[in-house]
Automatic annotation (TrEMBL):
This is Tripartite tricarboxylate transporter permease. Pfam families: TctA. The keyword Repeat does not apply. InterPro entries: DUF112_TM. Keywords: Membrane, Transmembrane, Transmembrane helix. It comes from Clostridium rhizosphaerae. Residues 10-431 form the DUF112 domain.
Protein backbone atom coordinates (compact mmCIF):
# COMPACT_ATOMS: atom_id res chain seq x y z
CA UNK A 1 0.00 0.00 0.00
CA UNK A 2 1.63 3.26 -1.16
CA UNK A 3 1.87 6.49 0.83
CA UNK A 4 -0.50 8.38 -1.51
CA UNK A 5 -3.30 5.89 -0.90
CA UNK A 6 -2.71 6.02 2.87
CA UNK A 7 -2.91 9.82 2.80
CA UNK A 8 -6.17 9.60 0.82
CA UNK A 9 -7.57 7.21 3.41
CA UNK A 10 -6.54 9.56 6.23
CA UNK A 11 -8.17 12.49 4.42
CA UNK A 12 -11.39 10.52 3.91
CA UNK A 13 -11.39 9.52 7.58
CA UNK A 14 -10.87 13.14 8.67
CA UNK A 15 -13.74 14.33 6.46
CA UNK A 16 -16.01 11.62 7.87
CA UNK A 17 -15.00 12.41 11.47
CA UNK A 18 -15.71 16.13 11.09
CA UNK A 19 -18.90 15.56 9.11
CA UNK A 20 -20.45 13.02 11.47
CA UNK A 21 -19.30 14.80 14.61
CA UNK A 22 -21.71 17.54 13.49
CA UNK A 23 -24.47 15.35 12.03
CA UNK A 24 -24.30 12.79 14.85
CA UNK A 25 -25.08 15.45 17.46
CA UNK A 26 -28.46 16.12 15.86
CA UNK A 27 -31.43 14.41 17.56
CA UNK A 28 -32.83 11.53 15.52
CA UNK A 29 -29.77 11.33 13.24
CA UNK A 30 -30.02 7.55 12.89
CA UNK A 31 -26.96 5.89 11.35
CA UNK A 32 -28.90 4.02 8.67
CA UNK A 33 -30.53 7.23 7.45
CA UNK A 34 -27.37 9.36 7.55
CA UNK A 35 -24.33 7.14 6.88
CA UNK A 36 -25.78 4.68 4.35
CA UNK A 37 -26.87 7.26 1.71
CA UNK A 38 -23.52 9.10 1.79
CA UNK A 39 -21.58 5.82 1.62
CA UNK A 40 -23.77 4.79 -1.29
CA UNK A 41 -23.00 8.00 -3.17
CA UNK A 42 -19.27 7.42 -2.68
CA UNK A 43 -19.55 3.88 -4.02
CA UNK A 44 -21.55 4.95 -7.08
CA UNK A 45 -19.10 7.83 -7.67
CA UNK A 46 -16.26 5.38 -8.22
CA UNK A 47 -14.16 6.18 -5.15
CA UNK A 48 -11.62 3.44 -4.35
CA UNK A 49 -13.13 0.76 -2.06
CA UNK A 50 -10.38 0.96 0.57
CA UNK A 51 -10.91 4.74 0.86
CA UNK A 52 -14.68 4.22 1.22
CA UNK A 53 -14.10 1.68 3.99
CA UNK A 54 -11.83 4.11 5.88
CA UNK A 55 -14.53 6.79 5.50
CA UNK A 56 -17.25 4.43 6.71
CA UNK A 57 -15.32 3.19 9.77
CA UNK A 58 -14.51 6.78 10.74
CA UNK A 59 -18.16 7.75 10.29
CA UNK A 60 -19.55 5.04 12.58
CA UNK A 61 -16.94 5.72 15.27
CA UNK A 62 -17.63 9.46 15.18
CA UNK A 63 -21.40 8.95 15.21
CA UNK A 64 -21.28 6.66 18.24
CA UNK A 65 -18.90 8.95 20.13
CA UNK A 66 -20.86 12.14 19.56
CA UNK A 67 -24.26 10.64 20.43
CA UNK A 68 -23.19 11.08 24.05
CA UNK A 69 -23.94 14.80 23.65
CA UNK A 70 -27.70 14.95 22.86
CA UNK A 71 -28.40 11.96 25.12
CA UNK A 72 -26.65 13.45 28.14
CA UNK A 73 -27.51 17.12 27.70
CA UNK A 74 -31.05 17.02 26.35
CA UNK A 75 -32.21 13.43 26.97
CA UNK A 76 -32.80 13.04 23.23
CA UNK A 77 -31.37 9.96 21.46
CA UNK A 78 -29.27 10.73 18.39
CA UNK A 79 -30.27 7.38 16.89
CA UNK A 80 -31.94 4.08 17.69
CA UNK A 81 -28.82 2.62 19.31
CA UNK A 82 -28.57 5.41 21.89
CA UNK A 83 -32.19 5.08 23.02
CA UNK A 84 -31.48 2.51 25.81
CA UNK A 85 -29.07 4.98 27.46
CA UNK A 86 -31.51 7.90 27.82
CA UNK A 87 -33.03 6.82 31.13
CA UNK A 88 -29.65 6.31 32.81
CA UNK A 89 -28.21 9.51 31.31
CA UNK A 90 -31.13 11.46 32.79
CA UNK A 91 -30.34 10.04 36.24
CA UNK A 92 -26.84 11.50 35.96
CA UNK A 93 -28.25 14.79 34.67
CA UNK A 94 -30.63 15.11 37.63
CA UNK A 95 -27.64 14.71 39.92
CA UNK A 96 -25.77 17.49 38.12
CA UNK A 97 -23.41 15.06 36.36
CA UNK A 98 -24.12 15.85 32.70
CA UNK A 99 -20.41 16.25 31.95
CA UNK A 100 -19.73 12.91 33.67
CA UNK A 101 -22.40 11.23 31.54
CA UNK A 102 -20.83 12.51 28.32
CA UNK A 103 -17.37 11.37 29.36
CA UNK A 104 -18.53 7.95 30.51
CA UNK A 105 -20.46 7.29 27.30
CA UNK A 106 -17.66 8.49 25.03
CA UNK A 107 -15.06 6.52 27.01
CA UNK A 108 -17.22 3.40 26.77
CA UNK A 109 -17.22 3.81 22.99
CA UNK A 110 -13.41 3.93 22.99
CA UNK A 111 -13.24 0.68 25.00
CA UNK A 112 -15.68 -0.92 22.57
CA UNK A 113 -13.49 0.16 19.66
CA UNK A 114 -10.26 -1.12 21.20
CA UNK A 115 -11.75 -4.54 22.03
CA UNK A 116 -13.95 -5.16 19.00
CA UNK A 117 -11.52 -4.41 16.16
CA UNK A 118 -9.02 -7.25 16.85
CA UNK A 119 -11.80 -9.63 17.96
CA UNK A 120 -13.87 -8.93 14.82
CA UNK A 121 -10.92 -9.39 12.48
CA UNK A 122 -9.94 -12.63 14.25
CA UNK A 123 -13.48 -14.03 14.06
CA UNK A 124 -13.72 -13.02 10.42
CA UNK A 125 -10.59 -15.00 9.57
CA UNK A 126 -11.89 -17.97 11.58
CA UNK A 127 -15.12 -18.00 9.53
CA UNK A 128 -13.40 -17.88 6.13
CA UNK A 129 -13.16 -21.71 5.76
CA UNK A 130 -16.95 -21.95 6.18
CA UNK A 131 -17.82 -19.04 3.91
CA UNK A 132 -18.53 -21.15 0.81
CA UNK A 133 -21.10 -23.27 2.66
CA UNK A 134 -22.77 -20.24 4.23
CA UNK A 135 -22.95 -18.34 0.90
CA UNK A 136 -24.34 -21.42 -0.85
CA UNK A 137 -27.42 -21.16 1.34
CA UNK A 138 -27.46 -17.36 1.40
CA UNK A 139 -31.06 -16.86 0.20
CA UNK A 140 -32.75 -19.21 2.69
CA UNK A 141 -30.43 -17.84 5.39
CA UNK A 142 -31.85 -14.36 4.78
CA UNK A 143 -35.37 -15.77 5.08
CA UNK A 144 -34.50 -17.60 8.29
CA UNK A 145 -32.86 -14.39 9.51
CA UNK A 146 -36.10 -12.49 8.91
CA UNK A 147 -38.02 -15.08 10.95
CA UNK A 148 -35.47 -15.08 13.78
CA UNK A 149 -35.37 -11.28 13.98
CA UNK A 150 -39.17 -11.24 13.95
CA UNK A 151 -39.30 -13.75 16.81
CA UNK A 152 -36.77 -11.73 18.82
CA UNK A 153 -38.63 -8.46 18.31
CA UNK A 154 -41.16 -6.97 20.69
CA UNK A 155 -44.05 -7.37 18.23
CA UNK A 156 -43.51 -10.95 17.05
CA UNK A 157 -46.83 -11.69 15.35
CA UNK A 158 -47.11 -8.56 13.22
CA UNK A 159 -43.45 -8.99 12.20
CA UNK A 160 -44.05 -12.59 11.11
CA UNK A 161 -47.30 -11.71 9.34
CA UNK A 162 -45.57 -8.94 7.37
CA UNK A 163 -42.89 -11.14 5.78
CA UNK A 164 -44.88 -12.59 2.87
CA UNK A 165 -46.95 -9.49 1.93
CA UNK A 166 -43.91 -7.21 2.01
CA UNK A 167 -41.87 -9.67 -0.08
CA UNK A 168 -44.76 -9.81 -2.57
CA UNK A 169 -44.82 -6.01 -2.84
CA UNK A 170 -41.06 -5.81 -3.47
CA UNK A 171 -41.03 -8.51 -6.14
CA UNK A 172 -44.30 -7.23 -7.62
CA UNK A 173 -42.69 -3.86 -8.31
CA UNK A 174 -39.64 -5.53 -9.86
CA UNK A 175 -41.74 -7.77 -12.13
CA UNK A 176 -43.83 -4.77 -13.17
CA UNK A 177 -40.68 -2.85 -14.14
CA UNK A 178 -39.48 -5.84 -16.17
CA UNK A 179 -42.88 -6.27 -17.80
CA UNK A 180 -43.20 -2.67 -19.03
CA UNK A 181 -39.54 -2.50 -20.05
CA UNK A 182 -38.36 0.16 -17.62
CA UNK A 183 -35.32 -1.98 -16.81
CA UNK A 184 -34.00 -5.14 -18.53
CA UNK A 185 -35.53 -8.38 -17.28
CA UNK A 186 -33.55 -9.81 -14.40
CA UNK A 187 -32.17 -6.42 -13.29
CA UNK A 188 -32.31 -6.27 -9.51
CA UNK A 189 -33.67 -2.84 -8.55
CA UNK A 190 -32.24 -2.70 -5.05
CA UNK A 191 -30.59 0.57 -4.00
CA UNK A 192 -33.69 2.77 -4.15
CA UNK A 193 -35.81 0.08 -2.45
CA UNK A 194 -33.27 -0.14 0.36
CA UNK A 195 -33.37 3.62 0.90
CA UNK A 196 -37.18 3.67 0.67
CA UNK A 197 -37.32 1.31 3.65
CA UNK A 198 -34.71 3.40 5.48
CA UNK A 199 -36.75 6.61 5.34
CA UNK A 200 -40.16 4.92 5.24
CA UNK A 201 -41.40 6.65 8.43
CA UNK A 202 -40.45 10.04 6.95
CA UNK A 203 -42.32 9.33 3.69
CA UNK A 204 -45.37 8.22 5.67
CA UNK A 205 -45.31 11.39 7.79
CA UNK A 206 -45.04 13.59 4.69
CA UNK A 207 -48.11 11.92 3.17
CA UNK A 208 -50.01 12.35 6.44
CA UNK A 209 -49.39 16.09 6.22
CA UNK A 210 -51.39 16.09 2.98
CA UNK A 211 -54.45 14.89 4.93
CA UNK A 212 -56.28 18.01 6.20
CA UNK A 213 -58.00 16.28 9.12
CA UNK A 214 -54.76 14.64 10.19
CA UNK A 215 -52.89 17.91 9.81
CA UNK A 216 -55.44 19.90 11.80
CA UNK A 217 -55.35 17.38 14.67
CA UNK A 218 -51.58 17.50 15.00
CA UNK A 219 -50.25 19.12 18.16
CA UNK A 220 -48.63 22.53 17.81
CA UNK A 221 -45.56 23.45 19.83
CA UNK A 222 -43.67 26.64 20.51
CA UNK A 223 -39.91 26.74 20.12
CA UNK A 224 -38.43 24.03 22.28
CA UNK A 225 -36.32 25.26 25.17
CA UNK A 226 -33.30 23.18 26.11
CA UNK A 227 -31.21 24.30 29.06
CA UNK A 228 -27.51 23.58 28.74
CA UNK A 229 -25.55 23.66 31.99
CA UNK A 230 -21.93 24.72 32.17
CA UNK A 231 -19.56 21.79 32.38
CA UNK A 232 -16.11 21.39 33.88
CA UNK A 233 -13.39 22.32 31.40
CA UNK A 234 -10.84 19.70 30.40
CA UNK A 235 -7.39 21.03 29.49
CA UNK A 236 -5.43 17.87 28.64
CA UNK A 237 -6.31 15.10 26.19
CA UNK A 238 -8.81 12.88 28.07
CA UNK A 239 -7.83 9.35 29.06
CA UNK A 240 -10.77 6.89 28.93
CA UNK A 241 -9.03 4.53 31.38
CA UNK A 242 -8.91 7.30 33.97
CA UNK A 243 -12.44 8.55 33.30
CA UNK A 244 -13.91 5.07 33.78
CA UNK A 245 -13.52 3.07 36.99
CA UNK A 246 -11.85 -0.35 36.88
CA UNK A 247 -15.27 -1.97 37.20
CA UNK A 248 -16.65 0.07 34.28
CA UNK A 249 -13.62 -0.75 32.12
CA UNK A 250 -13.97 -4.46 32.92
CA UNK A 251 -17.70 -4.64 32.21
CA UNK A 252 -17.33 -2.51 29.07
CA UNK A 253 -14.60 -4.82 27.75
CA UNK A 254 -16.67 -7.92 28.56
CA UNK A 255 -19.78 -6.45 26.91
CA UNK A 256 -17.69 -5.57 23.83
CA UNK A 257 -16.40 -9.12 23.60
CA UNK A 258 -19.91 -10.59 23.87
CA UNK A 259 -21.24 -8.07 21.34
CA UNK A 260 -18.50 -8.99 18.87
CA UNK A 261 -19.24 -12.71 19.09
CA UNK A 262 -23.03 -12.30 18.85
CA UNK A 263 -22.84 -9.95 15.86
CA UNK A 264 -25.85 -11.55 14.15
CA UNK A 265 -28.28 -10.61 16.95
CA UNK A 266 -30.24 -7.35 17.31
CA UNK A 267 -27.82 -4.63 18.54
CA UNK A 268 -30.55 -2.64 20.32
CA UNK A 269 -31.94 -5.68 22.14
CA UNK A 270 -28.48 -6.92 23.10
CA UNK A 271 -27.44 -3.44 24.32
CA UNK A 272 -30.52 -3.10 26.50
CA UNK A 273 -30.29 -6.62 27.90
CA UNK A 274 -26.59 -6.68 28.80
CA UNK A 275 -26.52 -3.07 29.97
CA UNK A 276 -29.34 -3.68 32.41
CA UNK A 277 -27.93 -7.07 33.43
CA UNK A 278 -24.45 -5.77 34.26
CA UNK A 279 -25.75 -2.78 36.22
CA UNK A 280 -28.61 -4.54 38.02
CA UNK A 281 -26.56 -5.49 41.10
CA UNK A 282 -25.35 -1.93 41.69
CA UNK A 283 -27.56 -0.21 44.26
CA UNK A 284 -26.34 3.40 44.20
CA UNK A 285 -28.36 5.14 41.40
CA UNK A 286 -25.47 7.33 40.17
CA UNK A 287 -22.97 4.47 40.14
CA UNK A 288 -25.53 2.23 38.45
CA UNK A 289 -26.30 4.82 35.77
CA UNK A 290 -22.58 5.41 35.08
CA UNK A 291 -21.95 1.67 34.75
CA UNK A 292 -24.98 1.23 32.50
CA UNK A 293 -24.19 4.02 30.01
CA UNK A 294 -20.51 3.10 29.66
CA UNK A 295 -21.30 -0.60 29.20
CA UNK A 296 -24.14 0.05 26.75
CA UNK A 297 -22.04 2.35 24.59
CA UNK A 298 -19.10 -0.06 24.53
CA UNK A 299 -21.41 -2.87 23.46
CA UNK A 300 -23.10 -0.71 20.81
CA UNK A 301 -19.75 0.25 19.31
CA UNK A 302 -18.62 -3.38 19.32
CA UNK A 303 -21.75 -4.54 17.47
CA UNK A 304 -21.12 -1.89 14.82
CA UNK A 305 -17.59 -3.14 14.15
CA UNK A 306 -18.33 -6.85 14.34
CA UNK A 307 -21.58 -6.53 12.39
CA UNK A 308 -19.68 -4.81 9.59
CA UNK A 309 -16.26 -6.46 9.52
CA UNK A 310 -17.13 -10.12 10.12
CA UNK A 311 -19.67 -10.49 7.26
CA UNK A 312 -17.60 -8.22 4.99
CA UNK A 313 -14.22 -9.94 5.47
CA UNK A 314 -15.41 -13.53 5.87
CA UNK A 315 -18.52 -13.83 3.70
CA UNK A 316 -19.21 -10.93 1.37
CA UNK A 317 -22.94 -11.11 2.13
CA UNK A 318 -24.78 -9.05 4.77
CA UNK A 319 -25.79 -11.42 7.57
CA UNK A 320 -26.10 -9.03 10.51
CA UNK A 321 -28.42 -6.13 11.38
CA UNK A 322 -25.51 -3.72 10.94
CA UNK A 323 -24.53 -5.09 7.52
CA UNK A 324 -28.09 -4.92 6.19
CA UNK A 325 -28.47 -1.40 7.60
CA UNK A 326 -25.80 1.32 7.62
CA UNK A 327 -23.10 -0.90 6.10
CA UNK A 328 -25.23 -2.27 3.27
CA UNK A 329 -23.64 -0.14 0.48
CA UNK A 330 -20.35 -1.88 1.21
CA UNK A 331 -21.96 -5.17 0.16
CA UNK A 332 -24.57 -4.28 -2.43
CA UNK A 333 -24.69 -1.07 -4.48
CA UNK A 334 -25.51 -2.01 -8.09
CA UNK A 335 -23.96 -1.65 -10.57
CA UNK A 336 -20.68 -1.07 -8.69
CA UNK A 337 -21.08 -3.64 -5.89
CA UNK A 338 -23.17 -6.81 -5.97
CA UNK A 339 -23.30 -9.82 -3.67
CA UNK A 340 -21.00 -11.57 -6.14
CA UNK A 341 -18.54 -8.67 -6.44
CA UNK A 342 -18.00 -6.28 -3.54
CA UNK A 343 -15.32 -5.25 -1.04
CA UNK A 344 -15.01 -8.85 0.13
CA UNK A 345 -13.79 -9.86 -3.31
CA UNK A 346 -11.77 -6.70 -4.08
CA UNK A 347 -9.83 -5.87 -0.92
CA UNK A 348 -6.99 -7.87 0.62
CA UNK A 349 -6.64 -8.70 4.31
CA UNK A 350 -4.12 -5.89 4.77
CA UNK A 351 -6.52 -3.46 3.06
CA UNK A 352 -9.22 -4.30 5.59
CA UNK A 353 -6.80 -3.92 8.51
CA UNK A 354 -5.33 -0.61 7.32
CA UNK A 355 -8.70 0.94 6.45
CA UNK A 356 -10.19 -0.10 9.80
CA UNK A 357 -7.25 1.11 11.87
CA UNK A 358 -6.95 4.45 10.03
CA UNK A 359 -10.68 5.14 10.12
CA UNK A 360 -11.06 4.20 13.78
CA UNK A 361 -7.89 5.98 14.93
CA UNK A 362 -8.71 9.27 13.20
CA UNK A 363 -12.31 9.39 14.45
CA UNK A 364 -11.42 8.18 17.94
CA UNK A 365 -8.71 10.80 18.31
CA UNK A 366 -10.63 13.73 16.84
CA UNK A 367 -14.21 13.09 17.92
CA UNK A 368 -13.39 11.77 21.39
CA UNK A 369 -11.41 14.91 22.20
CA UNK A 370 -14.10 17.18 20.72
CA UNK A 371 -16.93 15.29 22.42
CA UNK A 372 -15.40 15.45 25.88
CA UNK A 373 -13.92 18.96 25.65
CA UNK A 374 -16.48 20.88 23.54
CA UNK A 375 -19.69 18.89 24.04
CA UNK A 376 -21.75 21.83 25.27
CA UNK A 377 -20.73 24.13 22.41
CA UNK A 378 -21.38 21.48 19.75
CA UNK A 379 -24.80 20.66 21.13
CA UNK A 380 -25.79 24.34 21.32
CA UNK A 381 -24.66 24.90 17.70
CA UNK A 382 -26.55 21.87 16.35
CA UNK A 383 -29.74 22.61 18.30
CA UNK A 384 -29.74 26.27 17.20
CA UNK A 385 -28.40 26.15 13.65
CA UNK A 386 -29.09 22.73 12.12
CA UNK A 387 -32.79 21.81 11.98
CA UNK A 388 -33.53 18.11 12.05
CA UNK A 389 -35.98 18.67 9.17
CA UNK A 390 -33.17 20.04 7.00
CA UNK A 391 -31.20 16.81 7.35
CA UNK A 392 -34.27 14.72 6.58
CA UNK A 393 -35.07 16.89 3.55
CA UNK A 394 -31.54 16.41 2.23
CA UNK A 395 -31.67 12.62 2.50
CA UNK A 396 -35.23 12.46 1.13
CA UNK A 397 -34.17 14.35 -2.02
CA UNK A 398 -31.20 12.00 -2.38
CA UNK A 399 -33.53 8.99 -2.24
CA UNK A 400 -35.72 10.45 -5.01
CA UNK A 401 -32.65 11.10 -7.16
CA UNK A 402 -31.39 7.53 -6.75
CA UNK A 403 -34.91 6.18 -7.42
CA UNK A 404 -34.87 7.95 -10.79
CA UNK A 405 -31.39 6.65 -11.55
CA UNK A 406 -32.45 3.08 -10.69
CA UNK A 407 -35.58 2.80 -12.88
CA UNK A 408 -36.76 6.16 -14.16
CA UNK A 409 -39.76 8.29 -13.20
CA UNK A 410 -42.06 5.37 -12.42
CA UNK A 411 -39.67 4.16 -9.74
CA UNK A 412 -40.16 7.41 -7.81
CA UNK A 413 -43.82 6.37 -7.40
CA UNK A 414 -42.69 2.83 -6.57
CA UNK A 415 -40.29 4.09 -3.90
CA UNK A 416 -43.00 6.29 -2.37
CA UNK A 417 -45.36 3.28 -2.27
CA UNK A 418 -42.70 1.07 -0.70
CA UNK A 419 -41.83 3.83 1.78
CA UNK A 420 -45.44 4.26 2.86
CA UNK A 421 -45.85 0.52 3.47
CA UNK A 422 -42.46 0.22 5.23
CA UNK A 423 -43.25 3.27 7.37
CA UNK A 424 -46.62 1.84 8.35
CA UNK A 425 -45.11 -1.53 9.25
CA UNK A 426 -42.38 0.20 11.26
CA UNK A 427 -45.00 2.10 13.26
CA UNK A 428 -46.84 -1.15 13.88
CA UNK A 429 -43.69 -2.58 15.44
CA UNK A 430 -41.83 -4.30 12.58
CA UNK A 431 -38.17 -3.30 13.01
CA UNK A 432 -35.71 -2.38 10.27
CA UNK A 433 -33.81 -5.66 10.60
CA UNK A 434 -36.88 -7.69 9.59
CA UNK A 435 -37.72 -5.35 6.69
CA UNK A 436 -34.18 -5.45 5.29
CA UNK A 437 -33.98 -9.25 5.59
CA UNK A 438 -37.26 -9.46 3.63
CA UNK A 439 -35.77 -7.17 0.96
CA UNK A 440 -32.86 -9.60 0.47
CA UNK A 441 -34.91 -12.79 0.62
CA UNK A 442 -37.90 -11.55 -1.45
CA UNK A 443 -36.80 -13.18 -4.77
CA UNK A 444 -36.25 -16.57 -3.08
CA UNK A 445 -39.51 -16.37 -1.10
CA UNK A 446 -41.65 -15.62 -4.16
CA UNK A 447 -39.90 -18.20 -6.37
CA UNK A 448 -40.28 -20.85 -3.67
CA UNK A 449 -43.99 -20.12 -3.23
CA UNK A 450 -44.51 -20.13 -7.01
CA UNK A 451 -42.68 -23.46 -7.23
CA UNK A 452 -40.02 -22.20 -9.64
Amino acid sequence: MDIVLILQMILAAVIAAVMYTIIGAAPGADETATIAPVTLVLVLSGVKPVIILAFFISAIVASKLIDAVPVSIAGIPAGVMSTPMVEHAMVLKKNGLTDTSIRKIASGAIIGTIVSIPVSLFLARALVPFSAVIKQYGDPVFFIGAILLALMSKNKWISLAAILPFALLIQGLRYMYWGIGVVPKGTNVFTSFFLAITIGPVILTLFELLNKDKRDNMKRFDKKEINLKKTEEIKKFPNPFKILTKKEVGYSALASLIGSVTFILSPVGLTTFLGELFSSRTKDPVEKASLAVSTMEALAQATYFSGTLIPLVALGIPLSPMSIGPANPLFNAPPVFTLQHNMHHILTNSDFVWATIIGAAVAATFTYFITVKYSRQICAFVFKRIPHEALLGLFFSLVLLLAFMDAGWINIAGVLLLGIVAGTLYRLGVNYGVLFMILYSAPWIIKTIAGQ
